[in-house]
Amino acid sequence: MTITATMRTTFREQGFVVVPGVLTEEQLATGRALVAVELEKSPPEPGHVGFHFVWPRFEDGPHPLLDFYRETVAPLAAELVRPELGVDDPDFAQVATTIPSWSHRPGAPHVDGVASLQEDGSPYTFSVLAGVWLSDQLGEYQGNLHVWPGTHLRFGEYLAEHGADALAELNKDTTGAPYPKIELGEQIQTFGTAGSVLFAHYLLGHNIGGNTGPDRRETIYYRLQAHGHGDRWRDVMADPLSEFRAG
Ligand SMILES: [Fe+2]
Predict the structure, then answer these.
(1) Ligand 1: centre distance to CA 47 (Å)
(2) Strand, helix or coil at 238?
């Protein structure tokens, strides 16, 4: 699978793109087995419905979820980010599950990385979120990610105007969905088959959706930085497409 020019345009305009058919059947089975291992280590409470996350970290040497990233996501991410920058390996994964039956529609979007801040007061920004879908998201409310298309650009305009440090100010937001007061437009659900990979721009408004389907939703997320992102994050926030290939 490859990222086409059309997909790059979709990503730049909408702030996200779903790449279908990335994983082989064998890779799908591997991903599901890796999720099962993490859930065994950190299981949800008995009877729990709704979201349940596990956050495996990679600092302590080799990790099968990092190997899985390198095999499935890294080649695609390299086609989305400007080649002269390249993409760093992630430091951690998020095993995201949504256990049915959980009726939920998010009322507002959020941005990641501002609930807690770094020691110097800066947010935990990154370039792009990659989600490896291990369950079908073909109908509505099957644990689909909800997104607000185009908000990555309007958020960028907001930060160009107010300064990138306005992002850290969202830390004071107590609504549970930190996001600036910009024009949001309509929220939509993202769709695709198991084995797809979703890329979402860091600034894109998004939130977790309900799951009233029969099956547990399973996604492995990786938060990716273009190489050097940490040194130029303020510039990137005000120019959101600057780390990504144009065509
Ligand atoms: Fe998020």
Answers:
(1) 24
(2) helix
113-158: pLDDT as tens digits: 999 999 999 999 999 999 999 999 999 999 999 999 999 999 999 9
Q: Which residue has the tokens 């065994």?
A: 40
107 CA to centre of ligand 1 in angstroms: 14
Ligand 1 geometric centre to CA of 92 (Å): 14
Residue 81 CA: distances (Å) to CA of 3, 127, 163, 202, 238: 11, 9, 24, 13, 17
pTM: 0.98
213 Cα–ligand 1 center, Å: 22
First to last CA, the chain: 17
What domains lie within the chain, and their CATH numbers?
6-238 (2.60.120.620)
Q: What are the residues facing 201 on neighbouring strands?
A: 128
Neighbours of ion ligand 1 (CB under 5 A): 112
